[in-house]
Write a structure and sequence with these properties.
The structure is a homodimer. Chain A is α/β, with parallel strands linked by helices. Chain A has 2 domains: about 240 residues, Spore Coat Polysaccharide Biosynthesis Protein SpsA, Chain A; about 80 residues, no CATH class. In chain A, about 25% of the residues lie in helices and about 30% in strands. In chain A, helix 3 crosses helix 6. Strand 17 of chain A pairs parallel with strand 15 of chain B.
């Protein structure tokens, strides 16, 4: 096993991507308070939990947070005095954002890129997976982490495992962006695909070389200080689907992207009737509901499988299985110019 | 036809009962803001609409409002300078409350007793029914108004029509308090029963004599100034079920007691999908919902037949057909001592 503290090897620099301004958890998440700033699981903000996940000083250096230009204050408040903050001049998706962090690092520095708003229940398992990946990253591989595909999710990307490189490390044979339902079903049934969670381990130089080779427009824009001129592309699209020497480390670490209130319901502790009640709420003869309030008391009576989320200025009610439809409310509010609610 | 403005006949004195502190429309209705203070139909508070219903000076004198001790300010605000206000020293149901108004009136004065929180869509029809009842009231009858029993409601009292006394006026053969479902079904099928809406026309003296005869404890307590010592009984129970010379005037006047959010949904203008949206709300692919907010924007997506009511401090979500279960939320809040929400 590689010892990260051995001479010449150095610690891993976590690169926490906090550029998202998702509205998938509206009305909890807002433009000014994106999902990573929310305490969704009771232990602190998703961003703080992400930072805590890479706090082991034996393995990790202080993190670099890459965030939206308007998020500086919120990041400082969520992570006071922790690490380095890089502000994106404009939102350009993950490939350019990671390039900013890579350019700020030494070329041999190993970066652990991770989203700021995902849940990982098994921190020890996560660290073990990172350690397993580290020798490959040092040798110039881009290592991804494959989450067990538990259901035929069509909202995620998938990674096809190729040949084994070592115990628990595989060549990544193929990246598939959001598949159709039949394909996702086949992936889950086949067992050879993992979810792409957007977590990557690689040397800064490896990433920049891959970017230069496969996404030269991004590379040029970022290296020449013209960030806003960069195409807005994800690392998956710009690099992973094209690069060579890409590995995948399957990791059963209790991961969730909490990409919807339905997903939040799944990862939360439920009472005996399947309800999750957070904040002032009454679930009376209710079943399978997610009831969450940051303000008004919510009384849910005799209802089933609903998401009910209340803040001081907005209330969402949607069937749990359709909770991704919150985007329709957000779109309607945008169309009405209700900026104060977004 | 009797002319109410003819010499010696005098105008009718409306007696508006505003003692209710109902929580059936919680969280809109509160102890400090009972249902009659709410604008439920868009035209003003139920109390103001009730006063407007008896505003024809050719037929009616200024109203007497009998209200709870704590409601003086709210009544003044809702009905500035209108009529006389009698405050109940303690809530003792309708029979003692009406007795207060009767004692304050001349014995030959005809009183029109009416709840403060009911909807009557057809004001002209209402006035016509009152005019039809008036000669009988003058002659010493207690006249009730029978609302067409549109469905086998088990929450209302029923009046059985007896022999016809005149065109559209019948002897009241029997009063039945809240029947069971089978009985209610039989009443509706039979067509000989009307709903008891708690609207009565009678001379003050007639009422006091009936009270003395059939509810002497109430009569004594109220006439001796010991109001709080009176039994708490409804006029139906204390008087109507026992008195002689009780008549019923069937009246198809678009009446509703708006006794639940389900009833409010029925009497409100619905959009083409059966939704009623009042206040800041979005109904996206929703059907048959009552969505009402006094504060936060309510976004309802993909839901059916729900009541969603939001105020600044409380949100109710309940199936429309079970909306009377709001009392379970009120009971739970009482049990938790959440006085500020009641």
């Amino acid at each position: 096993m590689d010892d990260p503290s051995s001479p010449g090897s150095g610690r891993i620099t976590p690169v926490i991507l906090s550029g998202g301004a998702g509205t998938r958890l509206w009305p909890l998440s807002r433009r000014a308070r994106p999902k990573q700033m929310l305490d969704l699981t009771g232990g602190g903000s998703m961003l703080a939990l992400t930072a805590a996940r890479v706090a082991d000083a034996a393995l990790f250096a202080a993190p670099v947070v890459v965030a939206g230009a308007g998020q500086a204050e919120a990041i400082e408040a969520a992570l006071p005095g922790v690490g380095t903050l890089i502000l994106e001049p404009a939102p350009r998706n993950t490939a350019p954002a990671i390039a900013l962090a890579a350019l700020a690092a030494a070329r041999d520095e190993v970066l652990l890129v991770l989203p700021s708003d995902h849940l990982v229940r098994d921190g020890a398992g996560f660290a073990a997976a990172v350690r397993r990946a580290l020798p490959f990253a040092r040798e110039g591989w881009i290592v991804t982490f494959g989450m067990k595909a538990e259901r035929p999710e069509t909202g995620y990307g998938y990674i096809e495992r190729g040949e084994a490189l070592a115990q628990g490390v595989f060549e990544a044979a193929r990246f598939v962006e959001k598949p159709d339902a039949a394909t996702a079903q086949a992936f889950v049934a086949g067992g050879g695909h993992d979810w792409n969670a957007g977590i990557f381990l690689m040397r800064a130089g490896t990433y920049l070389e891959a970017l230069e080779a496969h996404a030269p427009q991004i590379f040029e824009a970022v290296t020449k200080g013209a960030f806003a001129a960069s195409p807005a592309q994800s690392i998956d699209y710009a690099v992973m689907e094209k690069a060579e020497r890409v590995a995948v480390v399957p990791a059963a670490i209790g991961w969730s992207d909490i990409g919807s209130f339905g997903a939040l319901h799944i990862v939360s502790d439920q009472d005996e009737r399947g309800n999750v009640v957070a904040g002032p709420g009454l679930a009376i003869d209710a079943r399978g509901c997610l009831i969450r309030s940051e303000g008004p008391l919510v009384a849910a009576i005799g209802v089933e499988d609903l998401v009910i989320v209340a803040t001081a200025d907005a209330v969402l009610v949607v069937p749990r299985a359709e909770s991704q439809r919150v985007r329709e409310a957000v779109a309607a509010l945008e169309a009405k110019g209700r900026e104060e609610l977004l």
